[in-house]
Amino acid sequence: MPVNRNALIRYKTIDTCLRNPYRRWTLEDLVDACSDALYEYEGIDKGISKRTVQMDIQMMRSEKLGYNAPIVVYDNRYYKYDDPGYSITHTPLNEQDLKKMSEAVELLRQFQGFSYFRDMGEIVSRLEDHVTSARMKTTPVIDFEKNESLKGLDHLDTIYRAIVDEHPLQMKYRSFKARSASRFVFYPYLLKEYRNRWFVYGLKRGSRMLLNLALDRIHELEILPDEAYVKNTLFDPATFFDDVLGVTKGIGNKAEKVCFRVVPEEVPYVMTKPIHRTQRLVEELPDRSAVFEIEVVVNQELRREFFGYADGIEVLSPPGLVQFMKDRLQRAVERYARE
């Protein structure tokens, strides 16, 4: 059940009061204490009503928040904990809470390359240790794709800060095709993750061609805070990737209609996990195969996606993609035939 910040402040204040055995707490005393706490922490100076505190006590007594607080009234006026050692801060986490916390910890770990999350590393580790200790006999129920040995993750935060602060980068970079690394000044615009690899989009100084560089190919990186920055006027990051699968796209690339037939065995997979968000079913054939269509930029990631289905997909159009698939598959057949 969601609880707002003000309510949590009141619960914590009531808990602190009732844990003090050296004072008798009337409803009016609890109202005053909660009002003071809200003013101190939130600057709220209008106070609260008796009805609010009565509802808070009722909520703390209930199971809704998992407190089950043993709050009793004695002498028909004063409030206290029937168990002197009780506190809402000692309430054990239930299994549902532990599951949610486990998933949250795992999610936070996916962003450990950014300083904002790196600063939370110790907190996340302590939280993970607490959750693990509390769930000693349980097993994980969620597993995120990750590759902790992937190179380049240490560059994430530097590039992120350069984009936000609009600073150029001095970079030493070597692509897979280059014989040696080259140095250049780069204006970064966007970080993008695809299949657990990170890429940065931007311009090389002196060029107007949009580049996407893999972070695992960066050898050296330095922010140049005193250099002039060329702002992004080439593309809108919010919509630029709407018609592309993966990360390979140039400014002038246009989407094409790609038509393909899927064999019966693969149809359920393609139906439930579309190759692209524009995918639509064109026709269901008598042999239970199906024809689909997507509207995308034809790039290497799309080709590899089709190759991943091997003989499960037949590309029908456009002609250039059909010929490419034929040539590559024929080469593969010949290579296996030689062996």
For the record, what CATH class of the largest domain applies? Answer: Mainly Alpha
Envelope shape: elongated
Largest sheet: 5 strands, antiparallel
Spatial strand sequence of the major β-sheet: 6-5-4-3-7
- Write the element-wise H/E pattern from the N-terminal end onward: HHHEEHHHHEEEEEEHEEHEH
Strand content: 15-25%
Tally of structural domains: 4
Task: Estimate the helix proportion, in percent.
Answer: 25-40%
Oligomeric nature of the chains? single chain
Q: Which fold name fills CATH's third level, the topology of the largest domain? A: Arc Repressor Mutant, subunit A
Description:
- With 339 residues, this protein is an alpha+beta fold.
- The protein has four domains: 5-90, Arc Repressor Mutant, subunit A (Orthogonal Bundle), CATH 1.10.10; 95-134, no CATH class; 158-223, Roll (SH3 type barrels); 256-338, Alpha-Beta Plaits.
- 35% of the residues lie in helices and 20% in strands.
- The radius of gyration is 30 Å and the shape is elongated.
In short:
By secondary structure, the chain is of the alpha+beta class.
SSE order and pairing:
Blueprint: H1 5-18, H2 27-42, H3 50-61, E1 71-74, E2 78-81, H4 95-109, H5 115-118, H6 121-134, H7 156-165, E3 169-173, E4 182-194, E5 197-204, E6 211-214, E7 218-223, E8 256-262, H8 267-272, E9 280-284, E10 290-296, H9 300-308, E11 313-317, H10 319-338
Antiparallel strand pairs: 1-2, 3-4, 3-7, 4-5, 5-6, 8-10, 8-11, 9-10
Helix pairs in contact: 1-2, 1-3, 2-3, 4-6
